[in-house]
Design goal:
Strands 1-2 form a two-stranded antiparallel sheet. The longest helix has 24 residues. It is mainly alpha-helical. About 24% of the residues have low confidence.
Length: 262
């Protein structure tokens, strides 16, 4: 399967995470871009632009991709809402469109024969603009519940056993020892038990310490085991993913955790 291109650096974190999830779903389905073009309302070239971050992916495209891949679109649509709210853009294909109704220079024209009616209701676009902050807050809360800290820059595993270490606090000179062990055939380093947290450049936390230790145990050490997901860790993750025939995007997700835990 062809390797994905690096996503543009200027993409926001929420948009980046949405595209990562869409790419993974597409890869797991085994469908090519041409196949997606044949099975959806969008051409293969459109999917190439969407999934490589060249153009914002429409909400309807997210729904159609989930449908042809046999997946539940709910979580992806929440991520889509978060990404749109974060960058302030309107829905790319038929979402809220600003409606302008400028009055003539001489003022509004009324018909004398018609009695004044009730106050005009705000147009849909105006309501959408006012609702955007509330929608963004709701979407962020829901996304945080299922994405394990996906949108905060600090991954959270959600496993009760990890909470005993307390809140992770990064310090420039602090490093952590790696003590590898196994439980029921699964490899652990003693810092987190997650197998689902999404880690990428800018993440920090006990899950990052765990991933760095597991990379080191597999012979892909990323330098300091400090709990900060920087360029060195991302490069090591890519090398590990290539060696395990995974999508080499440098992002630790369920597939990469599964390989690290072996």
């Amino acid at each position: 399967m062809p390797r994905w291109k690096e996503l543009p650096a200027q993409l926001g974190e929420q948009e980046r995470q949405l595209l990562v999830q869409l790419r993974r779903m597409k890869d797991h389905s085994g469908l090519s871009l041409a196949s997606l073009g044949a099975k959806t309302s969008y051409s293969g070239s459109s999917w190439e632009r969407y999934l490589n971050g060249k153009k914002p992916v429409p909400r309807a495209a997210v729904e159609e991709l989930a449908q042809v891949c046999g997946a539940d679109p709910t979580r992806l649509l929440v991520l889509h809402e978060v990404a749109r709210a974060a960058d302030g853009r309107a829905e790319p294909d038929g979402g809220a469109v600003e409606a302008a109704a400028p009055e003539a220079a001489s003022g509004p024209v009324t018909r004398a024969s018609e009695p004044p009616g009730p106050p005009a209701e705000a147009p849909p676009a105006a309501r959408a603009v006012r609702l955007r902050p509330a929608l963004a807050a709701l979407a962020l809360a829901v996304a945080a519940a299922f994405a394990g800290g996906l949108l905060t820059g600090q991954a959270i595993s959600g496993d009760e056993g990890d909470e005993g270490r307390g809140v992770f606090s990064y310090a420039k000179e602090r490093t952590y020892p790696c003590e590898e062990g196994r439980a029921d055939g699964v490899r652990y380093a003693g810092y987190a038990t997650t197998a689902t947290a999404i880690l990428d450049r800018g993440s920090s936390g006990w899950e990052v310490v765990e991933a760095q230790c597991l990379l080191k145990a597999h012979g892909f050490g990323a330098g300091k085991v400090d709990g900060a997901y920087g360029d060195g860790t991302k490069a090591s993750v890519k090398s590990f993913q290539r060696a395990r025939d995974l999508v080499a995007d440098g992002i630790v997700g369920p597939d990469t955790w599964g390989a690290l835990r072996k």
